[in-house]
Structures are given as structure tokens and as C-alpha cells.
Amino acid sequence: MEPKRILFVGGKGGVGKSTTSAATATALARSGKKTLIVSTDPAHNLGDIFHKKVGHEKTKLEDKLWGIEVDPSRESKRYIQGVKENLQGLVQSRMVEEVHRQIDMASASPGADEAALFDRLTSIILEEADSFDHIVFDTAPTGHTIRLLTLPELMSVWMDGMLERRKKINENYTQLLNDGEPVDDPIYDILQKRKEKFAAVRDIVMDEAKTGFLFVLNPERLPILETKKALEQLHNHGLHVHTLVVNKVLPENADGDFLKKRRIQEEKYLNLINQTFPKQETILIPLQEEDISTAETLSAFAEHVRPLLNEQQSQ
């Protein structure tokens, strides 16, 4: 069985999500798989990890590996422009200015950037999946990731409500203005197409044969608590995390009184991880001697995540 074609990497801020994502994508690419890594975290790190400027569009990082850093503010502007273009010719010319003003006001409301980010993520999954063997998503810290991953379900319900209201309006127009003859409604058609697009992405994200989720945590109290809460929330939405990467585990050759005390505490947290997540496979990655800041250190880290690819194969 092949590793999952789409992999979402989540976790608390600062635990090593981007490093794990980059190392996993690198390991896949070096095994001969054409791989795309996408950062949806507004605090992008891919450029720093690969020492290359990673753009809003696909940037080649190394042989068989490409990267994208999604810019939420740029995506929001593009999304709003797309909404305006969709409405061109659908509203009376005297109303255009007012409609655009309303759209611009809506673009500044909470959640607008998230909606735009979700729209880009949807496009990447639908348009790039056939061009790559694997797509690895380096996501934002936990809360943001959960909202992003649960949006297909929420948007589906929202779109159903919008379509129902639009259908009712159209039926009223049909009776009042067109003697019962059906009235063309291009807005309904646009909404229907968006619903179909969201449904297609939801099917892919919910399909465990195609999509995998892994969370990165450190053997510390807060990351364990946050990961537990995140896995429960995702489980309630039908999204199941099978693999945990426990990063920055003290290596066996670390010595000294200070590290001896840390190791005793760490052992308690590793036991807590095993008790808290009995259904998940855990992969331990030792604390590295140096920051992951060069091609060599990234390669060394990638060797540690190779078992992760095997875990993904067996699920």
C-alpha cells in the first residue's frame, strides 16, 4: 500500500510541525515520489528551513519537491475579487457600486481570511492532487487547523441553507413574474458549483485511504493536553488521527545532573502519552544537537521520520 496521498501535519505552536512536515516531504521526494509541501500557517517557516524564497505559487525546492506558502491576506484579496467577478452581469449596473461596497465590508469581518484560505486549500487539493504523488500540509497551530479541517462539513451545511433560500426566492419570482415558467438563476448555479467543489474536497479529506492526519507534540504537559483536546474535536467531526510524532525526546547519550532530572520528568510524560493515546502509533524523535537550519540537519531529521512513512503505509 502507498503512503497517504494527502497528509495534514498539526500540533501546538513551537513543537516542530514545520520541521516534521519538511522532513516528511523531503523523505517522500528522496524516495522518488513527486511531492508538494504547502504551508497554511501565517507564520511561514518553509523558506527558512529550505533556505529558499518560497512563493505563493509552486516553488521548486529540490528534485521532486515543490513548496507553496499560502499568503492569507493576498488570498483574501484574490477571493474577494473572484466574488465580485462572479457577480458581474448578475446585478443591475446601478447596484454594482453598492454590492461591491458590501463585499469590501464583509472582507474585513472575522473569518474572511479563513474562508479565503480554505478556498485556496480546496483548489490545491482538487487541482494539484493529480500532478503529485503526495501533498503535505504544514498547518497553523491547533485551533486554526481544527477550524480549517472542519470547514468542509460546516460549509456544506451553510451552502445547503443558502441554496434552499435561493430556491425559495426563485420560486416566488417564477410565480409572480413569469406565470409559473422557470426563471434562470445564475446565482443559484454559482452556489451549486461551490457546493459541489466543497463536497468533493470533503470526500477526499474524509477518505482514510487517501488522507492522513498526524499531530506533533513534545513530552510536556501543555502539548499533551492540547493534543488530547484536538484529537477529540477532530474525532467528533469524523477525522481520526492515527499517528503522533513525539519530538524533542532527550537522547540516551545526554548526561549530567540537569538532564538526569529532566529525563525523570520526561519519562512520566512519555508514560502519560501512552496512557492518553492508546489507539495512536507514536514515533519518538530525539532532541537534535543543532537547530534544523541546514540541508544536512534536515536530512538527518528526515531519517528519523522514515518510520512515519511506514506507519502511514500500514493504516
From TrEMBL:
<dbReference type="Pfam" id="PF02374">
    <property type="entry name" value="ArsA_ATPase"/>
</dbReference>
<feature type="domain" description="ArsA/GET3 Anion-transporting ATPase-like">
    <location>
        <begin position="5"/>
        <end position="304"/>
    </location>
</feature>
<dbReference type="InterPro" id="IPR025723">
    <property type="entry name" value="ArsA/GET3_ATPase-like"/>
</dbReference>
<dbReference type="InterPro" id="IPR016300">
    <property type="entry name" value="ATPase_ArsA/GET3"/>
</dbReference>
<dbReference type="InterPro" id="IPR027417">
    <property type="entry name" value="P-loop_NTPase"/>
</dbReference>
<comment type="similarity">
    <text>Belongs to the arsA ATPase family.</text>
</comment>
<protein>
    <submittedName>
        <fullName>ArsA family ATPase</fullName>
    </submittedName>
</protein>
